[in-house]
Amino acid sequence: MNEILQYFLIFPLLGFVVTLFLPEKKESLISSVAFGTVFIQFLGITTFIIVWIVKGGQDLNLNEISVLKTSDFEFFVDFYFDKVSAVYLFIGSLLTSMITTYSRYYLHREKGYKRFFNTVLFFFFGYNLAILAGNFETLFFGWEIIGISSFLLIAFYRERYLPVKNAFKVYSVYRIGDVGFILAMWASHHLFHENITFMKLNNYDLVSEHLQSHTFIGFFIALCLACAAAAKSAQIPFSTWLPRAMEGPTPSSAIFYGSLSVHLGVFLMLRTFPFWEHQTSMRIAIGVMGLVTSIIASQMAKVQSTVKSQVAYSSISQIGLIFIEVALGLHTLALIHFAGNAFLRTYQLLVSPSVVSYLIREQFYNFTPRDTNKKQTFSKKIQYALYVLSLKEFNLEGFLNMVLWRPLKTIGKSLDFLNLNQVYLVTIPFYALGILSYKYQENVPTPILSKLPELFAFIGLVFVFKSFSERKSPFLAWTLIVLNHFWIALAIAFNQKVEWQELAIYLSGVVVAGLVGYFALLKLKKLEKRILISQYLGHVYEHPKFAFFFLLATLGITGFPITTTFIGEDLIFSHIQSNQFFLAFFVSSSFVVSGIAGIRIYARLFLGPHVKTYHELPYKSS
Question: Is residue 22 part of a domain?
Answer without folding.
Answer: yes
